[in-house]
Design goal:
By secondary structure, this protein is of the alpha+beta class. The protein folds into 5 domains: 120 residues, no CATH class; 116 residues, Sandwich (Immunoglobulin-like); 94 residues, Immunoglobulins (Immunoglobulin-like); 76 residues, Immunoglobulin-like (Sandwich); 70 residues, no CATH class. The chain is built from 8 helices and 31 strands. A 6-stranded mixed beta sheet has the order 2-11-10-5-6-7, with no helix packed on it. β28 and β29 form a beta hairpin. α3 packs across α6. The longest helix has 29 residues. The chain is elongated and about 140 Å long. InterPro entries: CD80_C2-set, Ig-like_dom, Ig-like_dom_sf, Ig-like_fold, Ig_sub, Ig_V-set, Nectin/PVR. One of its GO terms (cellular component) is focal adhesion. This is Ig-like domain-containing protein. Its main location: membrane. It is found in: Membrane.
Length: 536
């Protein structure tokens, strides 16, 4: 048995005894951890853990990569436990006697549970816990009623650190406040669900590294729409979490149709519905619009859809009924979050109205003896006409005219056809009529008559005639002014004066109308000539 002096190890030097070795271990641990009171003795803890059969973490596991033995039930030591351990640590170095007693003790004094909690701290690599561990999850996930939606959740530790995950929990945030657990995964015991059958961890498996905590929700319901939080509990880092919004959608079924307005409502001055568009079973409710140039309004209502949480939207297009809208096309446009682009539904309007009548077939060239002439009664009517009635302003039809429904056949044009014809049409909403006057000619018109000249042609002819008359008057005036011109005399070399007179001489045989006349005065003319005038 060693002596008291050997156990003391040289007194104050503390170099060779048990007391000196414990002090050196404390100084080395203080240099490594920075706090000599955090753990009483890593060496003693490890020795006692080996004696109790507590497995030590594998070498080379970085940071918090060591997993506490025993799987579930082991949690990170609380701050209260750490404070209690610090109180148990001696405030001063123990005496040589107490140190020798601890070294010669046969059984360890540390409980196995505390050893299992403290042993990972002794094998943590320097710098463990200094990195940042992140949890990645999308802000929103969308799924359809009855389908499966996956809520992704991934743990991303720093490259130099391998986090030890002790538990994964999925929490559902309730609208009224608070949260409840919907899924739990333990590294050794596996998953646990309050409502099994609809939830499943996609990639997490017991005994494997827990990095992917993605959760699949099967057979989606409307009440599954909520905010979900994925939470990783790690040792020694603590908890990390990320939230995801689950949207539950339902794609609506859409249809549009035209409405037939009853007669009683058509006679009312108030707008009546003429088209209906239905978007059935949408979640959220669909948005319906009518992009149309018509002066219409839309009345919209919502009712519960065929599945819980869905909505059916009904939109009625109303307008003041008019025959001008009958047969026109309008479009019902449906927008929904599940559509890549709006759905366009064309609708052909059916507006009930009385008949609108006109007569065609007269070409203004009906002459006596013409055969097989025809008049047609053109009708716009909704509903369809129920009857046609042909007549004249004088009464019944002429003998040569035969009614054939909407057509009137004239076998031979005679004087009795020179009248006004009437076509009267009836449907369930009322009766309307149209008139046409026929002018019978004596014969066919080969060329257009003066009566058919246009006002422009008549004006041009009038201007030409007036211009011609004005030119003729001007010529007459000019000619008369030339005839009234006075004659002039010129003396000749032999003393005979010759009067040269320019006068108009009536042309004979195509001679020009103008000539030169030379007159000799009677005093110089021979006695038997008198006044001699020579014309050229």
């Amino acid at each position: 048995m060693p002596t008291r002096k050997a156990l003391r190890g040289g007194g104050g030097g503390g170099g060779g005894g048990v007391r000196g070795r414990c002090q050196r271990r404390r100084r080395g641990r203080a240099d490594t951890t920075g706090d000599s009171r955090r753990v009483p003795s890593c060496f003693a803890i490890s020795q006692e853990a080996e004696e109790l059969g507590v497995p030590s973490p594998p070498s080379g596991s970085g940071g918090g990569g060591a997993r506490p033995p025993g799987g579930q039930g082991f949690e990170q030591p609380s701050s209260g436990a750490k404070r209690r351990r610090r109180r148990r640590a001696p405030a001063r170095p123990p005496s040589a006697r107490s140190t020798a007693s601890m070294a010669l003790r046969a059984r360890p004094a540390w409980p196995p549970l505390l050893l299992s909690l403290l042993s990972p701290l002794c094998w943590a690599t320097p710098g463990a816990g200094t990195g940042t561990v992140g949890v990645l999850a999308p802000a929103q996930v969308r799924g359809f009623l009855g389908d499966t939606a996956t809520l992704p959740c991934h743990l991303q530790p720093p490259p130099e650190q391998d986090a030890l995950v002790t538990l994964v929990t999925w929490l559902r945030r309730e609208p009224a406040g608070g949260a409840r657990s919907v899924a739990v995964f333990h590294p050794t015991q596996g998953p646990s669900f309050p409502e099994p059958g609809r939830l499943e961890f996609v990639a997490a498996r017991p005994g494997e590294k827990l990095r992917d905590a993605s959760l699949a929700v099967r057979d989606l319901r409307a009440e599954d729409e909520a905010n979900y939080t994925c939470q990783f509990a790690m040792f020694p880092e603590g908890s990390r979490s990320a939230s995801t919004r689950l949207r539950v959608l339902a794609q609506p079924q859409n249809e549009a149709e035209s409405l037939e307005v009853p007669l009683s409502r058509w006679l009312s001055p108030e707008p009546v519905p003429v088209a209906r568009c239905i978007s059935k079973g949408g979640r959220p409710p669909a948005r319906i619009s009518w992009p149309s140039p018509l002066n219409e309004k839309a009345n919209e209502s919502q009712v519960p859809g065929p599945l819980p949480g869905t909505t059916t939207v009904i939109s009625l297009l109303t307008l003041t009924s008019s025959s001008q809208e009958d047969g026109k096309n309008v479009t019902c446009q449906v927008e929904h979050e599940s559509f890549e682009e709006p759905v366009q539904l064309p609708v052909k309007l059916t507006v009930l109205h009385p008949p609108e009548v006109s007569i065609s077939g007269y070409d203004d060239d009906w002459y006596l003896g013409r055969s097989e002439a025809t008049l047609s009664c053109d009708v716009r009517s909704n509903p369809e006409p129920t009857g046609y009635d042909w007549s004249t302003t004088r009464g019944p039809l002429p003998p040569s005219a035969v009614a054939q429904g909407s057509r009137l056949l004239i076998h031979t044009v005679d004087d009795l056809i020179n009248t006004t014809f009437i076509c009267r049409v009836t449907n369930t909403l009322g009766t309307s009529q149209a008139e046409l006057t026929v002018l019978v000619r004596a014969g066919p018109s080969g060329e257009p008559s003066a009566a058919s000249w246009s006002p422009t042609t008549i004006a041009i002819l009038t201007v030409v005639i007036v211009a011609g008359v004005a030119l003729l008057v001007f010529l007459i005036y000019f000619l008369r002014s030339r005839n009234s011109r006075q004659a002039s005399y010129e003396p000749s070399a032999n003393g005979v004066s010759v009067m040269v007179e320019l006068r108009r001489v009536r042309g004979v045989g195509g001679s020009p109308p103008w000539g030169l006349g030379v007159c000799i005065p009677p005093t110089h003319a021979p006695p038997d000539l008198g006044k001699c005038c020579l014309g050229f």
